[in-house]
Amino acid sequence: MIILDKFLSLIAPFECIICGIEEDLLCSVCLRNFNTESVYCLNCRQQLNGIDCCSVQCKNHPTNRLYSVSSYTGITKEIVLCLKSSGMVGIASLMARMMAKNIPKNSNLIITHIPTASRRIRSRGFDQSALLAREISKITKMPNIKLLLKNNQSRQVGSSKSQRLKNIQTAFRVQNTKFIKGANILLVDDVLTTGVTVETASRELLRAGAKSVDVVVFAVA
Q1: How far apart are CA 221 and CA 206, in angstroms?
Q2: Nearest-angstrom CA–CA distance, 111 and 190
Q3: Residues 96-141: pLDDT tens digits?
Q4: Cα dihedral angle (84, 69, 171, 62), rounded to 10 degrees?
């Protein structure tokens, strides 16, 4: 699908979804002007400005920082849907470039992603979070290693809130543990909603010996 996407972009170039110019889904000019957010505490959503959150309630939170491009509205939402719903996998590299802007240069991090449910991968033909992780790895030159596997494949539709929370608590297991011990990990996902998923995944990584876990997403809902 990636090869086909590249071929189609050559014979029928994309139009920028902001200004309409024939170049890419987000042209170089609009990309430069895109309003990117900064670094936040995942727990209280306070902007950090390069420092750790000083709130007492956040000290025991499993993640240190949340890097986000924007809120899940408007153009940002359109870009995500182009990838997830329209299957335009080529846009993952553009999203990754925007996500990588907020990651500190020369960071000693191992990149990994939140695994997507198998049924979603079969339906779409790809794992969007894995695509983003791979592209961010190319840009930052940081290693990309699959550290998490999905356990719970049951559908959440119709489940009570308490059942959903119970399901997510056992949703992940770790692999490649030799890379986790003592590592600073950057966890990649496309959209952050409640934060429960990344918090659960982060706890598994920390339990396996990770030194720290930061999170980077394209958008926050």
Answers
A1: 25
A2: 14
A3: 989 998 888 877 899 999 999 888 888 888 999 999 999 999 999 9
A4: 180
Q: How far apart are CA 4 and CA 181, in angstroms?
A: 39
CA-closest candidate to residue 188, choices 216, 210, 213: 216
3-class SS letters over 121-147: HHHHCCCHHHHHHHHHHHHHCCCECCC
Quick: pLDDT tens for 180-203. 999 999 999 999 988 888 989 999
Tell me the β-bridge partners of 115: none
Tokens read off for 83? 């990838």
Architecture of the domain whose range is 2-220: 3-Layer(aba) Sandwich (3.40)
- Both tokens of 185, joined, read 């990990």
Round to whole Å and give the CA distance between 107 and 111: 11
For the stretch 89-99, pLDDT in tens is 888 988 998 99
pTM of the predicted structure, to 2 decimals: 0.83
Cα 201–chain centre separation: 12
Q: Is 187 helix (H, G, I), strand (E, B) or coil?
A: strand
Query: What are the tokens at 177?
Result: 């543990």
